[in-house]
Design brief:
There is one protein chain. The protein contains 7 helices and 6 strands. By secondary structure, it is of the alpha+beta class. It has 2 domains: 147 residues, Four Helix Bundle (Hemerythrin (Met), subunit A) (Up-down Bundle), CATH 1.20.120.450; 64 residues, 2-Layer Sandwich (Nonspecific Lipid-transfer Protein, Chain A). Helix 1 runs parallel beside helix 5.
């Protein structure tokens, strides 16, 4: 069974939005800070290129049946990002675009039967390979905001923003980090969780805060402030 059509659409839209945002940045701006502490935009771009190749590894695993981890190790991942980010801007851009192209090709060429495979994420979870488009969707839409350009969390399409909030809350619930809590989007009326204590905000502000990119000042806490746990 292939990934749901809407997941593929979200992923493709994310890649296009990200590529456009990167193209709009002058080379001189790539050395400026991203929204990720300690990372320049160029470091973030290097990460996005390497992440695409890491997801190609999972698709290769599904296609061949040979275990192919996303990264050799966490240290190897960090070293690859640092090494790529140290290259000239034009080369980093080229590596990013090539990574996008390799991922697009790998998704398009994966046989139907291979979509049934189970693969392991960098966090050690075994997941169906059909999650790969969603994994990249998270990367593209959150990190395009991290480029600190014109795209903000408010610009993420509603259905994708809702899916991201759901993903974060589900992860917290699986780790028992959010017991007794309900998260509510005041502008859309959506709610996630079933706890008696409600934490609410506009959906974009809620998503930004949940993802560690927003201020608690935008959140209405039913009780004392609650610091959001790590997402991934």
């Amino acid at each position: 069974m292939s990934p749901r059509p809407e997941l593929l659409a979200w992923w493709r839209d994310g890649e296009r939005t990200l590529a456009a945002a990167v193209s709009a940045l002058p080379d001189a701006d790539l050395t400026g800070p991203s929204l990720l502490p300690g990372w320049t935009r160029q470091t973030l771009l290097a990460h996005l290129g390497r992440n695409a190749d890491a997801l190609v590894n999972l698709l290769t695993w599904a296609r061949t049946g040979v275990e192919t981890p996303m990264y050799a190790s966490a240290q190897a991942r960090d070293d690859e990002i640092a090494e790529t980010a140290a290259r000239p801007a034009a080369q980093v851009r080229a590596e990013f675009a090539a990574g996008q192209a390799r991922l697009t090709e790998a998704v398009g060429q994966l046989p139907d039967a291979a979509w049934q495979a189970q693969v392991r994420t960098a966090q050690g979870r075994m997941v169906p390979v059909t999650e790969v488009p969603w994994m990249r969707t998270r990367e593209t839409w959150v990190h395009v905001v991290d480029l600190a350009g014109p795209v903000t969390f408010a610009d993420i399409p509603a259905e994708i923003a809702s899916a991201l909030v759901h993903d974060i809350v589900s992860g917290w619930q699986a780790r028992e980090d959010a017991g007794g809590l309900t998260f509510a989007a005041t502008d859309s009326g959506q709610r996630w969780g079933e706890g008696p204590r409600v934490i609410s905000a506009r959906r974009a502000d809620l998503l930004a805060w949940m993802a560690g990119r927003g201020s608690a000042g935008a959140i209405d806490f039913d009780g004392p402030p609650w610091p959001p746990p790590p997402w991934l």
